[in-house]
Design the sequence.
């Protein structure tokens, strides 16, 4: 695949952290979460009130009849109850998880995104990820969990963003000004556009632009989460999927796809502050390309 | 099954919260996490330093050859890379999770434990949990995550507990005194015995006694985690599995099995304090009997 | 569980082969397939024309989006394409099979059916089948495949059987007379009722009666297949599920559930003969309680 | 991928059936199984004695502990017992099948093999097989089962073939002469080399040569099965994997990998004849790239 196939312009002109933290780096912009950034986050936790940034998932049965009812709904998680004896001394189950399901709040590991046959920070994709799992750029980097300050930029305080709007750096700065908050290097950025997750084929969702991704690069965003991501269809054919084709593979910026931020926005508005302690602690599983996560905002 | 089969003595004399928060309660001792308890926890988060209480999990391949290498190790998580096109535009995978695997740090939902055919707070087990999943006492109660103050009682500060030792309430109080800390109602209790997770058939592990469970009841423990749980084989044949047969089904005390607490103990000793903010945010999945979790201690 | 719970009357009065071929027998009525029975079958194979007695199965995707489309249909088989490299040197997949799915033509192993806590020929169910698989009465007995003479008794030559009709031994004999054929000991019995597999809640399907099961016992049926089985709801509350609660566990008569016999009936009518060589060769997998099978009638 | 990458010489000089039965053909050499070929097969079934050509498969548990024991062995089939109620009214299970496992006797569908980005008879691979399953060249073509005459050519009657031997057309003809049998167009070819399935890294197995594949093309082999296939490592670097890179994608010759033929050879020698009726009736599942099968030889 050459660059023209993957689109998003010429890689040389794009924001990049390849080499910034070494050839073997697996953390990407998590390197920006310094002790100072963590302390800035901890200072926001005062009452211990928590808000989840994850969409609730109702599992579908892994199998259908005769012993489990059928389901008509696809779900990111499929569950099966296990025979453990008769009569059963306990109830137990297994679950099959589709790690990159669009209706699951999940963390994209850096090795998820391939650009010109490579993953961050320039490793050949087929060495980094094999049929037996990911060796480089996997969830291992996130497995011990992390905490930093989170900043919500609510672009939908006055109502959902217009259909097809391409969010720019200027949009993000305007929200900072409106909310009297400033994202510092190492902070996690949480963005709200006010749209439901289920796409309406008639009304294209808004999405992030390459300009917004450049702004994140300049500002030192360590982690991105939002109810808004890359638009489908593309807003800018010359630069499709700026988060998944630039921010993730070039900048090493981990993405939390499909975050649920409505309750967060309501609590921020109620408390009159848009900064909080953000914890991200997925199941401590190594070697995945993505993993469901339940980010917590603590106030 | 009558009581003599399930052991652990006569249910009527055991510590119980059946009815305390209503017939339909699904939270159990999480009801004890009041705003005051949460604030007590938040006050412990000062630097934002985090310690994971989860064992790392290295997934095994879900399938073996010819395209994925075989594995000799069982693992709580089995992973498979998914075909997404050729050449692949991204790397993606699924995972099969054994929710109650003994080498996975996981949260037991209240419906996991059956006592005399019933689950907390007295619901018939076969109504609460069906072939299609759990309707009552499932992970739904934990899905939005929680935060409270955590207290580590390190019973192994002077070395691992003796083989076969049955931990009593007095043991726990002695640790409080040694560490100059006192567990309050609504706090999470984390206990360390200093043993590795892999059982040695020659040397029985220590375990919790019914006396310790009674102490947790009196003190108002909201959540239990530890590298020590119920002993195998039983330490007291008259009262086997006091955590899983009394605390979970009778008191509604959620258990975090197989926690990793060595790093936590080292950090507590280094900082000279045994209290911290504890967050528990499993993937936001409803209806499971258990779920992997990555509890974070924040200092 | 006492006998009144499992219904189907008093076990002592029921047709039974417990002990007939020993306490450890795993073949049940397959013992009746003698060299003579096999030769009788082989004599029917003249042109090599084959008819499948299996329902076609269209797999559903094991997982849904973003890389595999969702499905609205439950299926006995769920398929997933596997990543084998990029670009892919070959195409490969896995499948999850629900062995006892009602829309899958499958063989019930003898250990599938529990009667009064026991499986054929009287072994305790929890010893015969464990969380790790079946040790006794499993598909192992069928794994090398088998051939014998098959006899189709077409009860629907003049149109589908009436709703709710309980098929008796006399019904089967009448079909023999009509078709000028006689089932001998060791033959496989194939029955057609002419109803589609998908149940209509308004119109109860016909089903086999205990009288018909007694007839099979007297005649020495070695294997049963049909588009008709046990009725739901029960036709005779005093004796529910005569095939699954009497024939399978008491007589050790293997059942092929959900056979497709319309094409078979058409070919038999065309050729004017209702006997054929029947081969049953499921995947050679040991230790299952059931397995999909594609029985072939050869003419 | 160009031809030099896929090896096996220039496609234009290779034996090919592209276009022979049309652009949309899905049967390949199964087209050669005429009524005459089937009748020739049926004539061989005299006593009804059956021999399975499938390796026995002992499933491994799908999951490990605490409720199912761990396994140290990889297996083509992984089994899990399902909770169906407490006490259990029946025993049921699911299985996960790795369709192309090297220790499973399985049928390769025509779409399994990709040559220069195409599958038989020249369809683009990414149209034929998608993340949701195979649309062209799948197991659908075999789903109703088939019967034809089978011929065993036992190359190991005098002992296993030498290590690294490349079987030629002349080798196959010599066996015909030795056994006084002649393979006709539409017959299935079964070959025995006398080696165990488990490869010994020190002693390379024998394998089929391109010359043997050309012989199969000239003779009109409809289906191939054997305990010998493509050698690993390649015997002829200029022409690697002649069965999987020429016979399957160019000739449309279905392959049964990893057949078990020792018992078959013993029975043929005992009876003094090497022809039999061969039935191939995999589970009737559409849309797979491969499927476990239990071929039966009937005498």
Sequence:
């Amino acid at each position: 695949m050459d660059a023209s196939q993957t689109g998003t312009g010429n890689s040389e002109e794009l924001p990049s952290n390849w080499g910034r933290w070494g050839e073997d780096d697996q953390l990407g912009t998590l390197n920006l979460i310094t002790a100072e950034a963590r302390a800035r986050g901890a200072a926001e936790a005062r009452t211990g009130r928590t808000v989840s940034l994850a969409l609730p998932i109702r599992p579908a049965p892994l199998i259908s009849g005769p012993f489990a009812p059928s389901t008509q709904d696809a779900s990111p998680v499929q569950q099966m109850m296990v025979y453990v004896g008769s009569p059963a001394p306990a109830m137990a189950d297994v679950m099959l998880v589709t790690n990159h399901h669009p209706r699951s709040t999940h963390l994209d590991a850096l090795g998820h995104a391939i650009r010109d046959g490579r993953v961050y920070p320039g490793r050949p994709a087929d060495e980094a990820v094999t049929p037996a799992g990911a060796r480089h750029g996997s969830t291992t980097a996130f497995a011990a969990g992390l905490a930093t300050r989170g900043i919500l930029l609510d672009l939908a305080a006055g109502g959902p963003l217009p259909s097809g709007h391409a969010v720019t750096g200027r949009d993000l700065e305007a929200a900072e000004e409106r909310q009297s908050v400033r994202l510092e290097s190492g902070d996690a950025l949480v963005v709200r556009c006010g749209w439901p997750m289920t796409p309406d084929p008639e009304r294209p969702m808004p999405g992030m632009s390459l300009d917004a991704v450049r702004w994140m690069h300049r500002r030192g965003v360590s982690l991105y989460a939002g109810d808004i991501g890359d638009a489908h269809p593309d807003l800018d054919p010359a630069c499709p999927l700026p988060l998944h084709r630039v921010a993730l593979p070039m900048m090493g910026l981990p993405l939390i796809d499909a975050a649920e931020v409505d309750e967060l926005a309501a609590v921020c508005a109620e408390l009159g502050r848009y900064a909080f302690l953000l914890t991200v602690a997925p199941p401590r599983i190594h070697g995945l390309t993505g993993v469901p996560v339940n980010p917590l905002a603590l106030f």
